[in-house]
Amino acid sequence: MKKIFYVALMAIMVMMTACQQSKEDYIKEFKSFENEVSEECADYTEVDWEDAAKEFEALVKQAEKYEDLTAEEAMELAAVQAKYAGLQAKKGIN
User: Fold this and answer.
1) C-alpha distances in angstroms, 78 versus 2, 14, 15, 38, 69?
2) Rg (CA), the chain
3) Is the entire prediction scored with pTM above 0.85?
């Protein structure tokens, strides 16, 4: 019975560890999001922009988890956020 308990406990711990996203993966995801929007924004409908805004907000909120961002990483994220804001502004102009 103890073996089953320990195996189950180890499996749960492995699953929890595997689900955590590193800050490097997060930054890559944020950049990927911005690149995707940048490439496809010309064809976006209002619904697409609303979906993108929701995803953007979720990504920005997720950044709060990473208190150990270096100055360089914080600048990278700020640049991505600025590019996205520029895309939104451009959409408003067209």
Assistant:
1) 50, 33, 31, 16, 12
2) 19
3) no
